[in-house]
Design brief:
The chain has 2 helices and 7 strands. It is of the alpha+beta class and about 160 residues long. About 25% of the residues are buried. The mean pLDDT is about 90.
Amino acid sequence: MGAPTLNSTAEIVQQLLINLGLGISPPIPPNLPVPGTWPVYATGEPNEPDNVLSVLDSVDQYDGRSMVDGEVWDHYGFQVRVRASDHPTAYKKAFALKVALAQQVNYVPLQVPSNVGTGLISYVVHCVSKLNVRVLGKDAPNSRRTLCVVNGLLAFS
């Protein structure tokens, strides 16, 4: 297995999306984001605003091991949940995330706030793979908000 990390995959992907300009750091209430921006949350989301991204940890994939040193090759699962005021907005954002993650991630350095103290932890995201978009439907039976997800695998060190 790869080296243990101090952040979850969701926290790393959250920072990756922010660094790539695909979303913004969550605002501190009561300051709501500027229209057209997408706040990105890790492991949960608020009820407001309508357009929001939340990143969750998902199923990892282990892809064998090195015959030289025994290192196990890991790809860490994640899911980006896209919630929007309507279906076209949600689907368009989900597809844009898929394309950007597939095309823009190639050894991207980032720093993620430590969740076990102060400071930043450095990571390098090698690639994002096996991306797919799924439409989940409505947020709630009587809601007009639509939910889509982008599933993928992340390789980082």
